[in-house]
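User: Can you predict the 3D structure for this chain?
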Amino acid sequence: MKKPLITLLLLTISVLLSAPALACPAIDQLPDFNCDGKIHIVVLGDSLVSGVGDTKNNNTGGYVLRTQNRFLNAQVDNFGVAGLNTVQLLLKIQRAFDGRGNVSLAAALVQADLVILDLGRNDRWFFGEPLQTSRRLRKSVDLIQRRVTTLAEYPPLIVTAVLMLPNRGSQGPWVKDLNQLILKSDSKEKPADLRLDLVSKRLLSDDQIHPTPAGYNALSLVLRDYLLKSFPKHASTMRLDKDNDLLYDIFERSKFGTDPLLRDTDGDGLIDGNDPTPAG
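Assistant: Here is the predicted structure, written as structure tokens:
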């Protein structure tokens, strides 16, 4: 592992481990999934993530920028790369963590509460059947979980998006088949229920692949609703708080030194999540 990566990741981990005792479950209605007092969302994908066709923002930003503007107290990172396919995604993630690629990507994944994968449509031209792409998307989820866990113990919630449908040639039916496989892969531990496919194809630009600015706005509204409704639902399933003290059980002993079965560990009248010194 190269030195810059080691330095960046050690800094990231120290920030995570030194988080104050603040409420884990929500900041501005969004779950603080890794309980570090911040909301950090990472979006990985292709040109629809980077924002090609977003003429209001010089063909950058797209729905990720609009989501950032809707949630000003969250950090929303755009790691969209035009043309990215799932084979390249796996290599990109692996190289980032090995110090041979984008070090900032590895650091962002370690800090993330939520990671969104929105890609696969470019595989149509290079890598065979939708089933293979679906499998690589699942491998990407597994890879992120495994690599983050070695550095930060608990991985982010990783969601696979159901893709907005293109309207050009054979790519449309191919992506439709891929979407069916993505939906079938949906599970409690690995959600695949961000329904970007519900945005109308009438909001595509003249190339019949990339959204217009109105299309990107519609995608950001779908993501906004997902963040406010589905993300908290998934978090409450995967992050228990049995004593209702606003600290997730899995972090109480390791991060705060508190008892996951006591609301007020030090007995000072403040529940642990609202107590600057919850362990006394």
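Residues 240-280 form one domain. The chain has two domains: 26-238, 240-280.
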